[in-house]
Write a structure and sequence with these properties.
- The complex is a heterodimer of chains A (267) and B (452).
- Chain A contains eight helices and eight strands; from the N terminus they run H-E-H-E-H-E-H-H-E-E-E-H-E-E-H-H.
- Chain A has 267 residues and is of the alpha/beta class.
- In chain A, strand 1, helix 2 and strand 2 form a beta-alpha-beta unit.
- Chain B has 15 helices and 20 strands.
- The two termini of chain B are 15 Å apart.
- Classes of the chains: A alpha/beta (267), B alpha/beta (452).
Amino acid sequence: MDHLTALENKSIFIIREAYYRFKDIAMLWSVGKDSTTLLWLCRKAFFGKIPFPVIHIDTTYKFPEMYKFRDEYAKKWGLDLIVGRNDGQVEAGMGPGKGTKLDCCNELKTNALKQTIAKHGFKALLLGIRRDEHGIRAKERIFSPRDEQFKWNYEDQPAELWDQYRSTVADDNHCRVHPILHMTEMDIWKYVQRENIPISELYLSKEGKRFRSIGCAPCCNPIDSAASSVDEIVTELETTTTSERAGRAQDKEDAYTMQKLRSLGYM
Amino acid sequence: MSKVMVLGIDGAPFTLLETYLQKGVLPNLARILKAGHGLSQMDAPVPDVSSTSWASFFTGTNPAEHGIFGFMELKPGTYSMRFPSYEDVRTPAVWEIAGGTSGMRDSGLKAAFAGAFASPAGSVVLNIPQTYPARPMNGVLTAGFVCPDLKKGTYPAAAYDYLSSMGYMSDVDSNKAVEDSAAFFKEVALSLEKRAKAYEHFLEKGGWELFIGVVTETDRVHHFFYDAAFDASHAFNGEFLAVYDRLDRLVGSLYDRFMDLTGGQGKFMTMSDHGFTAIKTEVYLNAWLRENGWLTLDSGKEYYEQVALGSRAFCMDPSRIYLNVRGKYPRGSVDPSQRASVASELKDALKAISGPDGSKVMKEVYLKEDIYRGRLMDEAPDLVCVANDGYDLKGNLKKSEVFGRSAFRGMHTRHDAHCIMPLGMMTSGRLHIEKLAPLILESLAGADTATR
C-alpha cells in the first residue's frame, strides 16, 4: 500500500470509529485546506453522504473567497451546514481593531464555538489539526477530551497504542477527534493533488503572492510565491525552509507581548 | 584583561539596598562590599522604563542612538502600534563589540574599542530585557522581558535545549500577583531557583569573558508589593524579605564561584535599570490632555487610532508626549512650523499640574532636545515627563479621571537605580547607566581608562 493510501485508511478508520462511539458528533470546517481534506475523507468514509452536521465558525472577517467556496461546496456536497457566530460580540463591534487580537480570537472563535456546542449539545467534534503545525499540537492525541472551559490537560493523556482510543468523557465535557493528526503539510498537498480535492483559490499565487495558511483576512499575510497550481505548491514545499504559519506568527507574539505589558500596568 | 560578571537586579533601588544592608538583611552583599566594592546611586535614562534603560545599559548609548524609547511605538505615518524588539536596537551591545559580532551596527563606543580586543571575547548573557529575538553572537544569550518564544529567544540551539529541559522560566505570571498573591510568591521563588540553576550551569560551562545575568523577579514583586518593603506589619512583608534573602544568596554564590574562577582578579558588578518607590496616586496623562483641550478621542476606535483630528498631543507609556504634527500622523493637527512653541506651551502646562494634595506632580518636563542626542531624534517623543516620587505617570487611554489607584503599589524612579562595582572602577561624579558599558569593555580589554 502506498503512503497516501495508508494515511487515508488510518483517517477513515478514526472517522468511522468516532461516529460509532459518539452519535452527537459534528465536524469543524474552517474552509482551509486541512479541514477541506478532512471533509473529503468524511465523504469517503460514508460513501458521499456525511451523516452529521458540518460547523463553520464565522468570525465575519473571513476572506470573501472563503464564504463563496463554503456555500458552493455545502450545496454541491449536500452538507448539513451549521454556521456558528457569536452574534452578541459581532453586533458589539468586536474585531481585530478593537481590543487585542487575542480578545478578538477568544470572542469570535472560541466563544462562538462554545455557544454552538451548547446550543446543539455536541459531545464530540472532528477537527482537521495536524501534529506538524505547531509545537503544542505535537502533544495532541487522536481522541482528546476538553472540559467545559475548553481546557486541555495535556499532562494526563493515554498513549493510544494499537489504535486504542479513550472515548469516555464527563457530562460537561466534549471530545475532540483528530483524524488527520498524523498527516504533514506535504501529505495534505500530495493528497489534494492525488484526489483532486477542490481548495480555495487563495492558496494559489496571484501577482507573486499566495496564502499558505488562511483564516481571518486582517490577520493573515501572504507569502512570496509563484506557485499557481497544486503541483507547483508541492514542488515549492519540497525546497522551502520557512514555517507554514509564519504569516500568522507576528500577531501571536504581539498578542503575548500586549498581555504581558498589561499585566504590569502598561497600555 | 579581566573577566567581568554583572548581575542585573531589575528595579532594585539604591535606597532600599542601603536600608536592607544596615538592617543585616543582605549579608552576602555586605561582605562583597567589604571586599573592595562600592555601592552608588545611579541615574536611569528618560523615560525610566525597563526596555529603554536596559538598551542604554547594554549599548552604552542614548535612546536617540539605540532607538528604544519604550515598550511600544507607532508605525511610521500611522496610529497603529508596534512592539520594538532587539532588532530595533540600532547600536551594538557590549557582547557584540567584545565578541566581534556587531556587524553593521555602529556606535561611538564601538569605534572607541575598535582593535581593543586581540581576540573576540565570549559572553554569557542571561535574561536582559529587550534582547528578543536572540541573534547569533559569540557565546550564549537567552532573552529577558518580553520573550514570547524561548526557542527564538535563545542562542545557540543547545542552550535552548538545556533551558527547556530544566523548566527555565523567562518570566513569572504577574496576573497572579492580584488574583492569588500566595501563588505569585511561590512562582517567584520557583523562577529564582530556575535562574540560580541556569546561571550556575552557564557559569561552570565556561567559554566566556563577560557574564551578565539579570533577575527580573524583584521588579515584578516591587510593582505589586512595594508597600511591604519597609512595613513589618504588611501581610506580605515576610514574603518580600524572603525574595531579597534568596537574591542575596544567589548573588553571594555566583560571586564566590566567579572569584574562585578568576583567582580573585575578576571584576564583579551588580546594577539595576531604575529604582522603585511607593505609589501615592497614578496619573493618567491622556486624561489630563483631554481635560485640558490637547487631545480628543474617537471612542468608536481602539488604542491610538482614537486620536481625532484637532488633537495636538497624546501620551504613550509611561510619560512620553508626542505632538500630533501634520505630515507625521494621518490626523496631524499641529503645524510643523509651530512645533517648538506648542511644545514649550505644553511643557509649562504639564509642569503646573498639582496632585490631589496640592503638591507638584512633575519633577521635570524635558523637551527632546534637552535629553536626547543622536541619529534618531525624529523618532523621539517631543516631551518626556519625570514625576516626583509617588506620582506614577501612565499613558492609559481608557481613563477619564486624571488621578486614580489600581492594584499597583510600586513605581519606577529615575534617580534611584544602584550600582555596585570594584572601588578601583568608581569615578567621581554621579553615575549614569550609559556609563557602565565603557567600564565593562575597558575591564574586558584591559585598556587604560585614561586613553579612552
